[in-house]
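Working notes for the structural subgroup meeting. M.R. asked for a predicted model of this chain before we commit to crystallization trials. I am recording the input and output together here so anyone reviewing the notebook later can reproduce the run.

Input as submitted:
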Amino acid sequence: MSTACGDPFDSPCIDAGAPDIFDYFLDCQWGLGGERSDMGAYGGQAIPTDIKDHERPPDFPDRICISQNYPNPFNSSTVINYSLTNTSYVTVTIYNVLGQLETTIFDGIQQAGMQSVVWDAADFPSGMYFARVKADERNGNIRMVLLK
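Returned structure, recorded in token form:
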């Protein structure tokens, strides 16, 4: 929002668009600046499109999918890739072969699509580990081998 519309902070994108493009909706309801066009999708009312909320690109994942870590076996660190069907609260945890939680390497919200996290296992002993990616009520697991 813009300070002109009652917000205490201005977005750096307010009135930052191309000077030759005039924003016809220069008020607090539509455009959030008063000088020229705004950049990006910041505030204001939505402008209807023909895109339906349920439409997804053909390559968009339809379920959580966790790929095998790379490299595997690994020494010191490895990358875990996974895909999310929608923006979700995600937890990525590492377990030992006894099923005991060793560490949590990510805990937060992530956008839909392909994601990756790095596990730095420098302080862990060699052995077999399991990574679990939990996104909302769905989860996926992989087996990893740490060799030092």
